[in-house]
């Protein structure tokens, strides 16, 4: 897995400065990756509908799994990156790479045939956050048939 991630950046014949890893989120017959599937991708699509075409939104939507924490980069670009230290780490790093790196020097690579890690149950806090985010981006501040109720 590490070799797949580092190879595009370390190979002197390639000219990549940043490589983002992705992998299938399937385990025990279940499709995982709920936050990406249920929040990030729909949110990016909604933002694009509201604000129109945007190079930045196209860039974020081009990643197969933007929330994976696996990435490799050349050391020379680190000096210009403002790396977040909160829950926005993955999207924050991608934003900084977009700000500091030409898109032809960015790649993504499948780093595992099937990679499974610890899954956390959907807590009430996460349910409320997802519900509130959806309510804020929807035109009438509600989404029909939304299965979660935000706690007040």
Explained architecture:
The protein is of the alpha+beta class and 152 residues long. The chain has a domain at 2-29 and 61-119. It is 39% helix and 13% strand. It has helices spanning 2-10, 34-51, 55-61, 89-100, 124-137; strands spanning 18-23, 26-27, 30-31, 71-73, 106-112. α2 (34-51) packs antiparallel against α3 and α2 (34-51) packs parallel to α5. The longest helix has 18 residues, at 34-51. It is globular and about 45 Å long. The chain starts with a helix and ends in a 15-residue tail after the last helix. Residues 140-146 and 148-152 have low confidence and may be disordered.
CA-based gyration radius: 17 Å
Average pLDDT confidence is 80
End-to-end Cα distance, whole Å, is 43 Å
Overall geometry comes to globular
Range of helix content: 25-40%
Number of helices: 5
Runs in which pLDDT lies below 50 for 5 or more consecutive residues are: 140-146, 148-152
Structural class: alpha+beta
Strand content: 5-15%
| SSE series | HEEEHHEHEH
The total of beta strands comes to 5
Q: Strands of the biggest beta sheet: in what spatial order?
A: 4-1-5
Characterize the largest beta sheet: strand count, sense, and whether it forms a barrel: 3 strands, mixed
Protein name: Putative glucosyl-3-phosphoglycerate synthase
């Amino acid at each position: 897995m590490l070799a797949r991630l580092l190879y595009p950046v370390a190979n002197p014949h390639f000219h990549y400065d940043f490589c983002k890893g992705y992998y299938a989120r399937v385990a025990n017959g279940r499709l995982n990756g709920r936050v990406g599937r249920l929040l990030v991708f729909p949110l990016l699509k909604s933002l694009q509908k509201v604000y129109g075409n945007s190079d930045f939104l196209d860039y974020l939507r081009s990643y197969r799994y933007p929330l994976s924490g696996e990435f490799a980069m050349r050391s020379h670009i680190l000096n210009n990156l403002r790396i977040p230290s909160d829950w926005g780490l993955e999207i924050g790093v991608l934003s900084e790479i977009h700000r500091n790196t030409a898109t032809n020097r960015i790649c993504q690579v499948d780093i595992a045939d099937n990679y499974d890690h610890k899954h956390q149950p959907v807590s009430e806090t996460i349910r409320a956050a997802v519900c509130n985010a959806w309510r804020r981006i929807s035109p009438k501040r509600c989404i029909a048939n939304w299965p979660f109720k935000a706690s007040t």
